[in-house]
Specification:
The complex is a heterodimer of chains A (483) and B (380). With 483 residues, chain A is an alpha/beta fold. Chain A is built from 14 helices and 24 strands. In chain A, strands 4-3-2-8-21 form a 5-stranded parallel beta sheet. Chain A has a 5-stranded parallel beta sheet with strand order 10-17-11-12-13. In chain A, strand 11, helix 4 and strand 12 form a beta-alpha-beta unit. The longest helix of chain A has 29 residues. Chain A is globular and about 65 Å long. Chain B starts with 7 loop residues before the first strand and ends in a 27-residue tail after the last helix. Chain B is elongated, with a radius of gyration of 21 Å. Chain B has 2 domains: 172 residues, FAD/NAD(P)-binding domain (3-Layer(bba) Sandwich), CATH 3.50.50.60; 149 residues, D-Amino Acid Oxidase, Chain A, domain 2 (2-Layer Sandwich). The chains are: A alpha/beta (483), B alpha/beta (380). The interface between A and B is large, with 47 and 61 residues.
Amino acid sequence: MRRCDLIVLGAGPAGAEAALAASGAGLDVVLVEEAAAAGGQVWRAPAAASPPGLDPFPAEAEARAGAALRARLAASPVESWFGARAWSVIRPAEGGFRLDAAGPEGPLACAAPRLVAATGAVERVIPFPGWTLPGVIGLAAATVLLKAQGVLPGQRVVVAGCGPLLAAVAAKILAAGGEVVAVVDRAAPAEWLAASRALASRPRLLARGLGWALRIAGRRVPVHFAHAVRAAEGDEALRRLRIAPLDASGGFAPGGAERVLEADALCIGDGLVPGAEIPRLLRARLRFDRALGGWVPELDAEGRTSLPGLFAVGDGAGLRGQAPAVHAGRIAGLAAAQEAGRLDAAAFAAATAPERAALAGLAPFAAAMAGLMALRPGAVRDIAPETVICRCEDVTRGMLDAAFDEGAREVNQVKHFTRCGMGPCQGRSCGDVAAEIIAARLGGAREAAGFWTGRPPLRPVPLADLLGEFDYADIPIPAPAPL
Amino acid sequence: MGSAVMQEYDLGVIGGGVHGCTAALFAARGGLRVALLERGPLCREASGVNAGTLTLQMTRLALIPYALRAHAMWASAPQWLGHDVGVVVCDGLSLAFTEAEAELLAFRATKRREAGAPIDLISGRAAMAVEPGLTDRALLAGHCRVDGFANAYLTGLAFRRALLGAGVAVMENRPVTSLAREERGFTALTPTGPVRFRRVLLAGGVWIEPMLRWLGVELPIKVLVNQLVVTERVRPVMRCVVGIANGLLSLKQYPHGTVVVGGGWQGEGDRERGGVALLPERVVGNLRLACHAIPALRGARMARAWAGLEAETADALPAAGPIPGIPDAYVCGSVHSGYTSGPYIARLVAEHILGREPALPLFPIDRLLPPRGTQSPEAA
């Protein structure tokens, strides 16, 4: 068991910065990350071994920032456990936290009085007929393909969903020489206009966004605003898409004219949902905040959850994006150091002042971006009864409605009735939409529909990776029950 | 509560697990007007999150006659319950890997066999013929043809349908905050109004202890926190229920491919907070045992793990029968391997409440209470 002052779970922008800040203030930090390198989704590192002939696409600002972060981590005293799949986090009776992981060379465990959870967000897809066809992938998955592997998602690609990732993915496909058939955006131009006032507070990002937009426009890529994918069709793989206009509620406009797009790949993401896995698992207090992406931990200004010693930062604690995550991460890392007595009040105030100022400056932009990605009330309304919601267990919308009709009133009961969320994705891909469907039946309040109780493992983990080397005699078998 | 006169039920059942649901069902079918009050949804505590094993090889000796009958009830659930709880009837194996375990197994299997469980002792090699997925390292196995498992998480749905069909007033999400004894019957207070009944059955699992306190009866109930693991769906790796001699493994593969690993390894939790955490070294210990027995399991991924509560009295035998000194009040629960035996024992309690002679004796709690005179005054 490795004992340290602080465990940081997740080495994206928030977690890595938290680890660096805490370490800089003198804490002994273990940083646990399931990927092979730090960077998270935004600053994802190129795969060490790309397939022959395929190089990751040319370095952009993001790639450079990621490389810089990895260099700072490497030069710091932070002990990074890469390729370590955390499966258990508990609060042992003696206090603090214990984390267990399946590492590349066997089981790993560490314990610390404090833990920063920076586990990121998961992508939401609002299901439609055909969304599980080969050729349909998430925007985040497309980002991994493009950034880490240097692979195009397809020959003729449609990019659909909402939020800033749309333009980013479309532009990357174009830059890599791919064809983007169309961009299908749930937001109306007026919504982008409103958001752009906030965007103006970040001129560099505005420039990047404009660059993407120009690149899309320069190739004459059609952008269908206030539209969404209604169906994906094809026998064994995607062949064509049907898209249709949306109304103000986010549902399909009655009588709206359908268009057909021929495509062999669809990259789709209808926003992001905070994972909040650790706060959920440890039963910290959560609250539902549609603008922050869903269920998020209650946090103070330094990222403290309701549980002593547990911090949560980054998109996993509420959607704000990469730039705010950096500052929130640093503040939480410094706060952990202050709690541990490594910083006095004055030093803490001085060290966090610029981070707080930066965070405040980014707030309007972050809120605007999160707003574009928030789930709209009408979005699940038009999902047909036969459409699969839980793709691991093949649970359809009709089965969720039937469970409600049989008396299931919150999502854990729905799970028992239908197996929705019981598969290997652990409810990550279906949870938000399933809860929204149940909430709609309850009159709209997501709080009433609840959320799936956090359970270990944090990720599915092969039993072989947990067992370690053992003889039968090593198994600490408890005393037998009475006869 | 708009009506001028509050409806009075013949029987109020407090606690909507397997015990409460079964008793309510048979009482209603016996002609009583029954209200079932459950603080959450039906069968979402122990009855919905246990390992679903319907085995005799982990059943307490004194409960074997009950478990045999309960097994038959589970196997015929579509007939009496009317709904499917995914029951699979199959062979069961209890394994011994060491000489000491073989001795324990031989002794326990013989005793259980004498009590009526059809268990044969077979060699490790013979056990491999019964269970092709088995390791070749077992020395001895108890082989029982009466074994199997249910899909515990379907229990609530199945009982809900049956109870509504039988006319039971199912009051879910209705926590009882106190129970008042009145001249003729009882009134349960809940946040959404009182409920009155002539007789009351306390069937709250580990919460029987605080429930009995409403009536001034002190019955200590120990809370076990059983850890469970389920894998993702995998190809068929086993066909039996597999356990070990000392009872600390229960293992089976469901028809949809998931494998549930249990055996009563203790996690962290209590009556107030439920199953709070699984202790990682005990998860690993339980999984090592499982993979030792069924080697192909090593390739599966753990998809989910949880901890559920189990109730145990001081002598680890059920609390099932009338509550001493309080007419018209009954208790049912704390049945070791309660999911297996629950329906039969709860049915016996319902028979008793209906004024019929139960086919097998109940387990009155008098034996567990302090000698007369030391009880609190209300219970005297």
